[in-house]
Amino acid sequence: MTSAISEYKPVLKIPAFRRLWLAQLLSLTAQNGIHFVQLVLIERLTGQSLQIGLMIVAFSLPPVIFSFVAGTVIDRVPKKYIITFSNLFRALLAISYIFTLHWFDTFPTLLLLIVYTITFLGSSIGSFYNPSVLAKLPLLVGEDKLVVSNSLFNITAALAQLIGLIIIAPAAVKLLGLAGAFALMGAFYFIAFLLVLKLPRDRGHKPSGKMTSMRKMWKEVREGWVFVVTHRPIYLAVIQLTLVASLLMILAMIAPGFSARVLGLAPEDAVYIFAPAGAGMLLAILFLGKAGDLIPVRWMQSAMLVLTTLSFGMLALISFDYTASRIPNVQVSEHVSTTMLLVALTMLPLGFSLYIINTLAQTELQRRTPPSLRGRVFTVQFMMASLVGLAPLLIAATLADLIGIPGMLFWLTVGCALVGALSLYDAYQHRGVTE
Q1: H helices within 77-107, ranges in order?
Q2: Does the pLDDT at position 103 exceed 80?
């Protein structure tokens, strides 16, 4: 562990990197925390997975809509400005939830529509923010420290999920209520805004504040897409990142319903589902630091897809009512049953496998993309994660309401099994090939 920490010291000594890293931790914590509070709010209002799915659609559509201009904007406008004002605007949007809950509390339908609208606006800002951060990172640390800094940013993502979804947001909902939880997340965004105010301008890259002609803009957008589809390691990494994003969206969608309709708990007690997954992500960080270079990336990704399939299969099995025959639901303590323990033991390897797939794919994407194309390529990746993930998300939400969460999890397991089989076949076909 000491040697792993020492590897991060060179990038942590860079003041600009530290500011961006801490700001990313706060903003991602706020983003995950707001998602949790939104899911609890909608589960309380409707009790329907489809309504939760629509909220996630409102979050996923903007990267699709704005992807065609976001890449060229990021490659031309100083990334510092995009990062800074994105945090400020999202802080204001988080605070707007408080007034929405106060003014429209007695109008549930109108309240839902406004929540979806605010979600859409926040995600629209994120469509420019997230690729800007990834494109800014190499400019701060240089190519030689890119892998280490990327690892730290993935730790940030895991910590943000752990802190936002599992610790701060559930505690805030219980102690401060929905409005207080939204206010706390807005404060996190504002602190992130203050941290990135002192970021340097883009070193090694001279963006142009002058927008180009529409024809040239479309040409640059096309260059980003062509680069992705014509480079096998790049499009494989994009596919893997899209898969992880889709599975995480589906997990987030069903978590409150799983807690309320399967485990018989309150919607905010979905923390019991996310917590073991967060622990699995932390174990994956340690694993990658110790043994990440010992296994070829292609075989590592395939093995993690198999582990993901097995985890979803076990979760589906637990969800069905086997209390009378196969899985006795014994109350271990006042708040813990054997079913909840099985859920925890299932979510631990799921978080482990999803984190490794995401980290390896993101590292490949950054390492193999030229600096001049990073903004456009990262935008393609975010667009694919949103666009491709919409169909399975809506299908999963519909199935969860029509045939129940257990049945939906069964078909999700079948889908993961097919993807895992294709990945193993690809790894076998290209064995011994160095990309």
Answers
A1: 79-103
A2: yes
Q: Does 204 or 430 have the greater pLDDT score?
A: 430
Q: Can you tell me the distance from the alpha carbon of 3 to that of 24, in angstroms, rounded to the nearest whole number?
A: 24
Which residue from 27, 50, 64, 41 is spatially nearest to 389, judged by alpha carbons?
64
CA–CA dist 55, 116 (Å, integer): 6
- Contacts of 424 by beta carbon, 8 Å cutoff, 6+ apart: 302, 305, 306
- C-beta neighbour count of 107 within 10 angstroms: 11
Amino acid identity of 402? L
- Please tell me the distance from the alpha carbon of residue 55 to that of residue 205, in angstroms, as a whole number: 37
Contact assessment for residue 350 and residue 308, using Cβ atoms and an 8 Å cutoff: yes
Segment 325-341 shows an average pLDDT of 53
Residue 325 pLDDT level (bands cut at 50, 70, 90): very low
Nearest to 37 by CA among 182, 190, 157: 182
Question: What CATH fold (topology level) applies to the domain 2-199+213-429?
Answer: Growth Hormone; Chain: A; (1.20.1250)
Instruction: Please tell me the distance from the alpha carbon of residue 268 to that of residue 173, in angstroms, as a whole number.
Output: 8
Q: Is 295 left (phi over 0), alpha (psi -120 to 50) or beta?
A: beta
Half-sphere exposure of 188 (CA within 13 A, CB side): 24
User: Quick check: 388 and 238 in contact, CB under 8 A?
Assistant: no
Give the residue with greater pLDDT, 256 vs 67: 256
Beta bridge partners of residue 331, listed in sequence order: 337
